[in-house]
Amino acid sequence: xxxxxxxxxxxxxxxxxxxxxxxxxxxxxxxxxxxxxxxxxxxxxxxxxxxxxxxxxxxxxxxxxxxxxxxxxxxxxxxxxxxxxxxxxxxxxxxxxxxxxxxxxxxxxxxxxxxxxxxxxxxxxxxxxxxxxxxxxxxxxxxxxxxxxxxxxxxxxxxxxxxxxxxxxxxxxxxxxxxxxxxxxxxxxxxxxxxxxxxxxxxxxxxxxxxxxxxxxxxxxxxxxxxxxxxxxxxxxxxxxxxxxxxxxxxxxxxxxxxxxxxxxxxxxxxxxxxxxxxxxxxxxxxxxxxxxxxxxxxxxxxxxxxxxxxxx
Amino acid sequence: xxxxxxxxxxxxxxxxxxxxxxxxxxxxxxxxxxxxxxxxxxxxxxxxxxxxxxxxxxxxxxxxxxxxxxxxxxxxxxxxxxxxxxxxxxxxxxxxxxxxxxxxxxxxxxxxxxxxxxxxxxxxxxxxxxxxxxxxxxxxxxxxxxxxxxxxxxxxxxxxxxxxxxxxxxxxxxxxxxxxxxxxxxxxxxxxxxxxxxxxxxxxxxxxxxxxxxxxxxxxxxxxxxxxxxxxxxxxxxxxxxxxxxxxxxxxxxxxxxxxxxxxxxxxxxxxxxxxxxxxxxxxxxxx
Lengths: 313, 288
Known about the structure:
Chain A is mainly alpha-helical. Chain A is 76% helix and 0% strand.
């Protein structure tokens, strides 16, 4: 199979996966979930009220039609209205994307640069004390529950020491900066362990290859070997790992946003869960799944384009 | 060369010996054993049976009376943290079992039979893993309603994809090996080849996966608690950490500290043990 046929096949595979995702969402929300009439109308609703509501929500249609309604929203992003705030959900998502990105954007950049640099450093000194120290620190960092980090960090650095804003948000650059510094720092701390460990593994994978030994034996300096050969070749898994994180950027940070009162998509999801706001939860599930599928395809296609050794199946 | 034939140890026995011989992994193993032992004792009400009784004033600071202070109802935080070990171990074990059963079954079927069965199973897990686990977790937990069963099921149902992928790839390799051809020649059935021959040869993957799933399940319980979908009716580290969000502003830090510490130690121990097991059981991955 040649490259283009593979890419085409990979792109076409999006269709059954997207249909499958919609099927899971449909089964969860339309078949298994409790009747929304109980949530919206309470216990004392009359039969007529319930029937009217079912009609309004399209629940009196046959299941197959309801399934196609779910599929349709994956393409049109017409998610309808929130039960809690009665707002248009797509408008809510658009409003929440900015604040979410103002935290996740800097976090994405800083945490990756930090983790990759650290991984390069310890890979360079592999087996030495600093390598072991960073490895221990990474594993320890991975073992702390992130909620505890956020709670403690906010209480200690913002409340006790007063170094940062405790919570709040202002729209627009650069007004939001004071409010996002602490959440970004805390999340860099939360993610550094796993990231550093992953990048270290990836870099070490290359460091033991034959061509590296060749480069070394022809007299290249260790620094040159590291940057010109090892880093360049480990770029593919590194880039993959970076791209795969992008869907999370739009999902927002569930803990940080609700504790620091940042009106982003993470906070919106939490509110929806607390209010049993089905349409919003459903919308966020569909939206994030679509983002995951798209970036999954992008990663796969890039992989095959960049790395000719990649076996096509 | 000696003519004597040494009886070789089984892989698992060799791995266990290797873990015990190294200081760090031995300590990790002991810690895990202590936690499991504690969980067993609390479930039999031999330890920490007073977790629900008040021992003093509300929000007593850590001191001689109460090692880790008291909570809002004056109950000892230390006792509750110990009692919560039972919850954590139950979650880690049950979730791992659910995930391993689903992941192994589907992975083996896909890898062994190939063809249309493989296509369907691959499609199924691709679909499942396309929904971010946090959203899937929320959706499942939300629909099943609150309770401990929900925690088990929602975490179990969202944790099997990784293992399923690995098992599928591994079984694909194994079914081409000579020992399966030999089993074929003596007329072994599919189920016999899968369960008697292939499964023991991939069992190390399940053991490694157990340590990882245990860890992530214990950590994910905190997220579920935060979402109000956690365990009810008995203490858990997740609910204790979540409760402390309202207490910190009043200077009550001990509940957060105690629960986080208890969780940190077992997650760390399992992390180390998982790495050691992987090094010992899967030599290809050594040193990573």
